[in-house]
Amino acid sequence: MNKFLVLCFLLLVSCKSYQIDADSLQSQLQKTTPVIDSLSEGRDITFFKGENLEELIVLNGNGEKVVLKTDTPIVLKVTRKDGFKFRYYLNSMSLFENEFKGMGPTYLVGGMIHKVKVDSIASIKVKP
Fold it and tell me: 59 or 88, which is more confident?
């Protein structure tokens, strides 16, 4: 019984949550190698992919910077200013101009694709 309680406690303690603001996430993505996609209309679009990030700089509960390695799945819990909430997997999201786009946590079975303008985001929680 004691081992079970210790295990439960460790699981609760190890489930850390961090914060990142939309502008910081946007600037970190823009520092990655851009992806250029040619459209049939003869113009190219440039976007940035979350899977190209090697690390993500976030803030812990004390406001201190923490560097998360992206070799493990990272979930971004996004809340828009109108209160609507959804999740992205960092490795499935992209940034095009001023808009994030990505798949939610059910991307293994098709998932839901969400698009959100950077300036309409109220908060982003990060769960490694």
Answer: 59
pTM of the model: 0.82
Parent domain of 86: 16-36+52-127
8 A C-beta contact, residue 106 and residue 112: yes
> Percentage of the chain with pLDDT > 90?
65
CA nearest neighbour of 127 among 84, 82, 87, 85 = 87
Q: Which residue has 């210790």 as its token pair?
A: 6
Q: What tokens were used for 68?
A: 């998360």
Q: Give the whole-angstrom CA distance, residue 50 versus residue 26.
A: 10
Is the distance from CB of 87 to CB of 77 less than 8 angstroms? yes
Would you say residue 47 lies in a domain? no
